[in-house]
Amino acid sequence: MRVLVVEDDRALGTFLKSGLEMQGHRVDWVEDGEAALLLAAADHPDLVLLDLGLPKRDGMEVLAEMRARHNDASVLVLTGRSDLHVQVECLDMGADDCLLKPFSFYELTARCRALQRRRVKFADPVLRHGDLELHRMEHTVARAGRTIGLTAKEFSLLEFLMLHRGEAVSRGQLLIEVWQMPAASGTNVVDVYINYLRRKLDGGEAHDAQAELIETVRGMGYRLGGLSCNPAARATGQSCPVHRPAYA
């Protein structure tokens, strides 16, 4: 998972970051509420471990603003406040779980796994973008009724782009999330696979760059956009309809 740790205790923050990274998660750690809101908006974490006693913006404010922005990351509140009403208030504000400090790291990771299972269970099994459909369980892709055969890595790349459609994603981000490689890796594998996907999605035909499904964002990376494949809609410049999954 992409995990955001929001904790102003440096010893605890360092411990949580290193421990979760050892379990294979990608972890960012910030020490105040303002930084947490900025990173949550930019990086779309799957899980936020949120301390309540934070500088600049406290945890309650962070939680309230995240939910007001429709940020649907799972939130596990870490608190030293033993008052039951504090925990109830957090849950009512949109937290998914609360864990009282001090806690066992084993209990923390068990709760993280439970939240991950819940997240996957309610994930939309079909992603759609215009006439493009990706079936996550069956690992199949079709466009305008035409079945498209993809390799496992092509499928993972397209799935990531569809989960973040409309957003520009960097090559470094794709290397981390799809290839599990460092962002600074000196490789052009992302560009190579983007070209593979473009050819397969477009049926090997040349398309107008303005209607290209996978757009190149200069200086940034790539974005799943493009206009509707319906010729009438394309001629009038209408955007293709987008169906967003419940948690993307």
Primary descriptors:
single chain, 248 residues, alpha/beta, Rossmann fold, five-stranded parallel β-sheet, elongated
CATH topology of the largest domain: Rossmann fold
Helix count, DSSP H or I runs of 4 or more residues = 9
- Coarse structural class: alpha/beta
Sheet with most strands: 5 strands, parallel
- CATH class annotation of the largest domain: Alpha Beta
Distance between the termini: 13 Å
CATH level 4 superfamily of the largest domain: Response regulator
Q: Label the CATH architecture of the largest domain.
A: 3-Layer(aba) Sandwich
Q: What number of structural domains do the residues give?
A: 2
Describe what this molecule looks like in 3D:
This protein is α/β, with parallel strands linked by helices and 248 residues long. It folds into two domains: 120 residues, Rossmann fold (3-Layer(aba) Sandwich), CATH 3.40.50; 118 residues, Winged helix-like DNA-binding domain superfamily/Winged helix DNA-binding domain (Arc Repressor Mutant, subunit A), CATH 1.10.10. It has nine helices and 13 strands. The protein has a five-stranded parallel beta sheet, with helices on both faces. α6 packs across α7 and α6 crosses α8. It starts with a strand and ends in a 5-residue tail after the last strand.
